[in-house]
Amino acid sequence: MASSLITALTVTTPHATTAPTPVTEGERYGLLNALAKVPDPRDPRGIRYPLSAVLAVAVCAVMAGASSFAAISDWLHDLDEHARIRLGFSDGVPAGTTMWRLLIRLDPTLLTTILAGWLHARAPQPSPTPRRYRSVIAVDGKTLRGARLGDGRQVHLLSALDTATGIVLAQVTVDTKSNEITSFAPLLDAVEKVLGTLAGVLFIADALHTQTGHADEVTARRAHLLVQVKGNQPTLFKQLKRLPWAQIPVGDRTRDHGHGRRETRTVKAVTVATPGGIGFPHAQQAVRIIRTRIVAGRTTRETAYLTVSLPAGHAPARDLQAWIRRHWHIENRLHHVRDVTFREDLHQARTDNGPAVIATLRNTAIGWHRLNGATNIARATRQANRRSHDLITAVTSSYPTTQ
C-alpha cells in the first residue's frame, strides 16, 4: 500500500458522460411460444395435455393471485371453455394432482431463464437520455421459510433483479450443504443467457459477496461489481475505514422525509490511483455513505463502506447514491411482495423442485405487473383475476399488451 494515503487517492468528481448505447430490440413473442422451449420431463407415450398449456395456466393463475399449486388448479377449472382452448387445452383439463406432479419435476433454473427472457423481450427500450444508461442488477438471497426438506433444512434461493424493469433475470437454488457464495457464478451464467452479454452491467450485492473470486468472475465477463464491506473482510474494512475521509469533500447528499422519519444520506467517493490503494481486486473507487435518521426526536447514524469497479468518470457520487439505494429494490419490491401478497413464507411446498418452481412463477407475475406499470401488485392480481380473458389475451399476444 502506498506510504501516503492522500497521494494514492484522488477525489471523485463528475465527468462528462456520453450518450447511452442503443439497446438492440429483442424478439417479442407470446407466452405459449416461449414455453414451448421448456423440455417436457414426461414419457412421450400417453401425453394428453401439452406442457406449454399447463405452464401457461400456472403463469396466468399466479398473475391472477394464485398462491399455491392447488390454487393454480382451481383457477384453471374456473375458466370457461373458450379461455381453456385459448391456453391450449382442447380436450379437457388435467386434475390438480396431475398438474402438481408435472410442475414439481421441472428444472426451475431453466424455467426462470425462459420466462425471464420472455419478459425481457417485452420490456420497453430505455429512452435516450443525456446521461449514460447502465443496467443495474441487484443480487440477494431469500429463504423459503415454509419449505422445509425431509432433514429439516430450508430451501434458499439466490436471485438477480433488474432494478430498472423489476424483472428477475435469474434465480438459482443454493445447495443446502453450501451457501450463496458458491451459487454466485451459476447466477451470472443464468443472467448472461437472458441478456446475451454482461458487458457494462453493474451488479450490486451485500457484504457476503465481497469475495475476490466474485470480483474476478464479474470482471472476466466485462461487467462491474458494487459491494458493501463489513467484518467478513476485516483487512479491507480497516483499509477503507482509515482512509482520509475528513479531507475528502462530499460528493452527493440527499434528504428524504416521510412516515415520521427524516433521513440524510451523505456520499463520499475516492479513486484509488495506485494498485496498492486498497486490497480488493479491480476496485476503482472506495465509497463511504453516512445515513442519519431522525425518528421521534431521536437521531441515529450509520456508516457503510463500499467498493466499486467503475472509475469516477463512469460512476460519479450522484450515480453511486442512486445505485446503492437500488439494491433495496430486491427486498422491498420482490421478496416483500412474495411474502405479503403471495404468502410465500406460509406456503409449505417442499417436494422435489416445487418450492423453486412456484417462486419462479411468483417472480414472473411480479415482473409482468411491473412492466404494465403496476405499483400495487396485490391490486394488479385482483384485477387480473376479474379480467381473465384480458389477461390471456395480453400474455399470448406477440407484442406487449397492457392489461
Automatic annotation (TrEMBL):
Domain H repeat-associated protein N-terminal: 33-119
Pfam families in UniProt: DDE_Tnp_1, DDE_Tnp_1_assoc
Recorded superkingdom: Bacteria
GO molecular function ontology, one term from the record: DNA binding
Domain Transposase IS4-like: 134-365
Cleaved signal peptide residues: none
GO biological process: DNA transposition
PANTHER family found in the cross-reference section: H REPEAT-ASSOCIATED PREDICTED TRANSPOSASE, PROTEIN YBFL-RELATED
Protein name, entry field: ISAs1 family transposase
Species of the source: Actinoplanes cyaneus
